[in-house]
TrEMBL record:
<dbReference type="InterPro" id="IPR012825">
    <property type="entry name" value="BluB"/>
</dbReference>
<dbReference type="InterPro" id="IPR029479">
    <property type="entry name" value="Nitroreductase"/>
</dbReference>
<dbReference type="GO" id="GO:0016491">
    <property type="term" value="F:oxidoreductase activity"/>
</dbReference>
<feature type="domain" description="Nitroreductase">
    <location>
        <begin position="20"/>
        <end position="185"/>
    </location>
</feature>
<dbReference type="InterPro" id="IPR050627">
    <property type="entry name" value="Nitroreductase/BluB"/>
</dbReference>
<protein>
    <submittedName>
        <fullName>5,6-dimethylbenzimidazole synthase</fullName>
    </submittedName>
</protein>
<dbReference type="Pfam" id="PF00881">
    <property type="entry name" value="Nitroreductase"/>
</dbReference>
<dbReference type="InterPro" id="IPR000415">
    <property type="entry name" value="Nitroreductase-like"/>
</dbReference>
Length: 211
């Protein structure tokens, strides 16, 4: 057996700071991210837990300009349609928000769940097959924290057409898009969420229910 590391109070304070400063970034510098830095973040994401040790995450680095443009076009369509679903005052506020850094971010990562993976032999998925996708979400969060610990920012773009993006990236049919991430160096640093800062939605208190 290996001796576990000791996580002291100083580490716990730093860890809480990391959680607090893990912001959804939409404003990126165009400076490139060193390949070794990106790889270190991905390697740490691969340490994430997964149902049955299935490791169903599949990372696709989107580097082709044409494919990036297609993703940006999908975002533009969905973003325009989303604004139409709000009353006029809220719609105006929505349109004023910057909701993606697709044009500026040096790294685009599409994160898929491989629904047909044989790894894990189906353990833990018979009653809750969605655990595969939840495992991918856990890997995304680990990647996010690993990037933030290195000064990088990550933005999760969900205002997209999953089927269109999947087709655009030409991946296996069993892969389901879970996250489209922009990654790079932030233009500015803020401890508070951008949506709270710009008046869209304040962060609420923890809601803990007991039964």
């Amino acid at each position: 057996m290996s001796a576990p590391p000791t996580f002291d109070e100083a580490f716990r304070r730093s860890l809480r700071d990391l959680f607090a400063w893990r912001r959804d970034v939409r404003r990126f510098r165009t400076d490139p991210v060193p390949e070794a830095t990106l790889r270190a973040c991905l390697d740490e994401a691969h340490l994430s837990p997964s149902v049955g040790n299935s490791q169903p995450w599949r990372f696709v680095r989107v580097a082709d300009p044409g494919r990036r443009a297609g993703v940006a076009a999908s975002f533009a369509r969905c973003n325009s349609d989303a604004a139409l679903g709000y009353a006029p005052e809220r719609a105006a506020r929505y349109r004023a928000l910057k909701l993606a850094g697709l044009r500026e971010a040096p790294v685009h990562l599409a994160v898929f769940c491989d629904a047909d993976t044989e790894a894990g032999h189906g353990l833990g998925r018979a009653t809750m097959p969605e655990m595969l996708r939840y495992s991918v979400v856990g890997a995304v969060q680990t990647l996010w924290l690993a990037a933030r610990a290195r000064g990088l920012g990550v933005g999760w773009v969900s205002i997209l057409e999953p089927e269109a993006v999947t087709a655009l990236l030409d991946v296996p049919a069993s892969w389901h898009l879970v996250a489209y991430l922009c990654l790079g160096w932030p233009v500015e640093e803020h401890a508070d969420p951008e949506l709270a800062r710009h008046g869209w939605q304040a962060r609420g208190p923890l809601d803990l229910t007991e039964r």
